[in-house]
Amino acid sequence: MDPYALKTLNAERRARRAAVLVTDLGDGRDRIVREGDHVAGELGDAIVRAFRTGNSGSVEAEGRTFFLNAHLPQPRLMVIGAVHISQALAPMAKIAGYPVEIIDPRTAFATPDRFPDVALYAEWPQDVLKRQPLDSYTALAAVTHDPKIDDFALKAALDAKCFYVGALGSRKTHAKRVERLLALGATAEQIARIHAPIGLDIGAASPAEIAVAVLAQVVHAFRARGLLAKGVAA
C-alpha cells in the first residue's frame, strides 16, 4: 500500500469516518475514497454498495478490475433514558452488533443492577456528550419522555448527523418537541430526520415489542445509507 494512502486511512479510522481503499489490480495503484466523495460510473456504484454493506471484494468496472477494501466504524447505539424499553433494547442491540451506551441523570433508573454489562452514565447528556461526541456512525434513541433530558441529546444528534435519530412520544408530543428544537436552533430539515413516534409501525405495545421496532428501524437506517441520498429505495 502507498504510505500516503495508509496514513490517510489510519487518520479516517481514528476519527470514526468511513473510507474505502480502492486498488486497481491491473497496475497496483490505490487511492482512498471517503464516504461522500463523488465517484462516477460503475465504480462509483460499487463503492456506494461497499459503504452501505461494509463488505470488501473485487469488482469489475469500466473494463478494469478493482479491489475495494471497506473500512467502516462499528455503528453504535446511544440510548437516552434508562427505562424498560432500554432494558429490552440493550441486549437485542448487542446481539445485532450495535454496542449500547445509556445516559440518564436519574440515578434511581440508571443503576448497574438494571443494566448489567452496559456502558451506563448517570449524568446529564450534555456532560457525557461533551466527553464522547456523537458521530455519523451513531444511532440515538431518546426514550425518557422528558424534554429536559431528551431535547439536548436530540439536537446534538441532528448536528452530528447521526445515521438514526428517534424519539418516543405521540405525534402531539412530537409537535411540541419540534417547537422546542426550533427554538434551540435546529432547522426544519434537520427535525424532519427524527423518527417520531419511534420505531417501525408493527403495532408494538409492550416495552420489549417497542424495543424490537426501534432496533429494526435502526438497522434499516444504517443499511439504507447512501441509497436514500441517491434516491434509490432501500
UniProtKB/TrEMBL annotation:
Which is an annotated Pfam family here? XdhC_C
* Name of this protein: XdhC family protein
Q: Which organism is it from?
A: Mesorhizobium shangrilense
Q: Where is the XdhC Rossmann domain?
A: 77-218
Tell me the InterPro entries matching this sequence. Answer: MoCofactor_Util/Proc, XdhC_Rossmann_dom
Superkingdom of origin organism: Bacteria
